[in-house]
Amino acid sequence: MDQSIYHGRYTANIKGDFVVFLIGSRFGIKDLLRARWLGDAMGAMQRELNANPTSGFLGGENFFRVFPIETVLISYWRSFDDLERYSRNRDNEHYPAWIRFYKEVGLNSDIGIWHETYMVHANEYECIYGNLPKFGLGNAKGVQHINIKDSVHARERSGRTDEPETLEAPEFVMS
Fold first, then answer.
1. Of all helices (H) and strands (E), which one includes residue 114?
2. Domain containing residue 93
3. β partners of residue 115
4. What is the band of 94 on the pLDDT scale with cuts at 50, 70, 90?
5. 47 pLDDT exceeds 70?
6. How far apart are CA 118 and CA 27, in angstroms?
7. Of 54 and 156, which is predicted with more confidence?
8. For position 175, what pLDDT does the model report?
9. Same domain assignment for residues 88 and 131
10. Residue 109: per-residue pLDDT
């Protein structure tokens, strides 16, 4: 992964609608070995998706917290249909892991799993990155420089015009 610092202000370079899919797990230390296959399966799924540019998977980032043990994958998809097509295809890595999870874990509360899906319409989102390596949606689709003097407020960057902006930008931002 490119860890070069992009100096200045940037936004994600994405056009059209997209989907943000969050998925994670939570388990206790005693279940670490029992849940290892879950992490292995997630890694295999991401490798499979990254190797197939026609899948609709745009990219993702993994996060891990040690205590309690929690994992999160933030992923970006071109459409909900692409995400669903991948998850239900019996020939993909996800399907056997999904079945195994419900057979081995089911409703047992020792290992938890969750996900959230957000459908984002074109021009109905906002993101800004400052002095960072590529991250999040910018990492998935690339970044483009923005002139902070022309785009100070999140409302402006998201194309919102329905309410007047009442706050002044901090002086340090404009200089």
1. strand 111-120
2. 18-120
3. 23
4. very high
5. yes
6. 25
7. 54
8. 41
9. no
10. 74
